[in-house]
Amino acid sequence: MDIVALTMLGLGIFVWLFGNRMWLLGAGAGALLGFAVLTWFPSLNTGWLAFFIVGGLAVLFGVLGFIGKAFTKIIAMVVGFIGGGALAVAFMDMLGLDLGFVTWLVALMGGLVGALLLSRFINWGLIIFASLLGSMLIVRGAMGFLDVLTGTIGSIVVVVLTILGIFYHARKAK
Description:
The structure is a single chain. This protein is mostly helical. Helix 2 (22-40) runs antiparallel to helix 3 (48-67) and helix 2 (22-40) packs parallel to helix 4. It has helices at 3-18, 22-40, 48-67, 72-94, 101-120, 122-142, 152-173. The longest helix has 23 residues, at 72-94. It starts with a helix and ends with a helix. The chain has one domain.
């Protein structure tokens, strides 16, 4: 079993269920960023080193989200930027799109959208990001075990899980 895939799957489930907490959302964004780093630098994707990269960034951004309660808006923007950029790259990678420099521009645009969303609409931003990040982590983790989730099928599963997650969190918020 791939330890990184299992870690992302487990973290994805927690983020999907309880991700409206800033520290957990930060951990999810960090793990997804770590996975993006592994796709950019395949030589780092070797067993425990890959686990420490993904896990280390998850812990780093989780701690940042936890200690940043006094600076909620700033931390929300940082987590939104990292999460939005990582989500944009993860979607492109899942669809098999490798556009070189354009990938960085898409990541930047995703990051800006994420930062604006979380800073402007923090409650709904947390709900949407928890659902989207959790769904993406679940699918990316499950891809380590199920090759059928690549491409369009994986994207459809992410969208369905995201919609279900938004309804789940919205009902809990009432």
